[in-house]
Design brief:
The chain is mainly α. Helix content is about 75%, strand content about 0%. The protein has one domain (about 1-80).
Length: about 90
């Protein structure tokens, strides 16, 4: 099951890797996304109680991260549905 997901993920990225390279690449991408989402969660909780903090900065950061994911996974069908005007 893991091998299938890694193959699918590397295909979405347009990369040709062996299983070890695919695992390391996937691990890095997943960890980066995980830490980003943890920080976004903390920032969102702070913003919920104190709206003056962050204002629309969190939204801007999320959009930038989605743009980055779209670059890293150009063949992903879900990300193809997202378009950016700028």
């Amino acid at each position: 099951m893991t091998t299938n997901h890694l193959t699918e993920a590397t295909n979405c990225a347009g990369k040709d890797m062996n299983i070890v390279q695919a695992y390391i690449w996937h691990w890095k991408l997943s960890m980066k996304e995980s830490f980003f989402l943890i920080l976004m969660s903390i920032g969102s909780i702070i913003h919920a109680f104190l709206p003056c903090f962050f204002k629309f900065k969190l939204l801007k950061l999320r959009i930038e991260r989605l743009k980055e994911l779209k670059k890293q996974l150009p063949h992903n069908e879900q990300l193809k549905n997202i378009t950016f005007n700028k």
